[in-house]
Amino acid sequence: MNFNPDIFKAYDIRGIYGKDFDEDFAFRLGAALVIYLNRHKFLVAHDDRSFSNKLSNAFMHGIISSGGDVESLDRATTPFFNFVFNELGMDGGTIVTASHDPVEYGGFKIFGERNKIIGLESGLAQLKDTVIKGKFEVSKSAGRISRDGKSRMIEKYIDFIINKANLRGQNLSDIKIKMNVPMLAQEEVSLLLKRLNLQVTDGGHDVMFSFDADDDRINVFDSSGNPVPSDIITVLLAKSASGFWRKPSVVCDFRFSRGVKEKLKKWGIKTVVSRAGRAYMKESMVRHRADIGGELSGHIFWKEVDYNEMPLLTMLRILKIISKTGESIDKLSEPFQTWFNSGEINISFEISKFPSLATRLKDEYHDGKINELDGVMVEYDDPADSGVSWWFNVRPSNTEPMIRLVVEAKTKNLLDEKIAEIKSLIRG
Known about the structure:
Shape: globular
Number of strands: 21
Strand content: 15-25%
């Protein structure tokens, strides 16, 4: 069997279906997971891509060939998968998805006991070696595939979200909501809207929510359709939650805005900085027992849901803040916009060339404060706060042939100047 070994990424498997891997690879990966975990109860689901069902079936037959039993959710979002995994106490599992990647890509998010993400540093490298060696013994007692629990679990999932949102009789029906929901999440969202009598509009809105293809990211937009950055959403949620936790703590993407970090410090909220990436964020949250974690990419993690993302819960808590304060999301986000931020800029790039780019950036900005926690970050601080403070981060994507650039500055002119300057260095 041939497959591209580069599909094994930092915290999942991603590649082009039919070119980098196929159903034979999926079968062997399923068998390898049973061998690696030495367990028998597995949960499997897949996204809406045209070939994901084929990959999922092959993966499940790999599991049962090695003696494992499978509970199949068929099509399911990542948050629903995580909820069912914990509710049923599964030993391991996979959701076949490439998340936000282009349609030709496929992938596997793999989990072990207690819903732990299996990444390169926590078992994925061993799985890769097992698949390469390809020595699998067929179990004398083959496992079975069950598909009978999904509808019951969706109702339970919606109950769980509403309970955790702790709305306490608050009426959210007056808030005009606009939503961009992927097909995969339509059933869950419809049930939630019906249960809470939420009003969704196609016209003017107070707030808009958009979810990615497998529904583990949430992006928020104000009444004019402008994005509200995820670091601002995280700090709003943390401040609201501080009324419930005596000493709340937050794990934040190290690229968060200085304006957000300044507010967290002012409020006395403990902050832990993490590398970007769901595996790193979740690991940091577990280690520090943090209450909430946020990434610039739209992943918001909650301790209450086993340190996983649950965008529908995040949405209800944002609506609760709007209802409770009586202020629009536009107004709520204003106090944090003390710096000018580029947001995450994606640039196509051959990842193998990143080390030479990193050297070039460090040489060019050698007089700044350099941090290599993830990629290259350089900071320039002006003690007099005269408007020349700025910073940038360039890091390689863990899932795509791209690099991510974030720039932030004290003035808009400085921001524009530095974005153009760094882009030129990257492309040159």
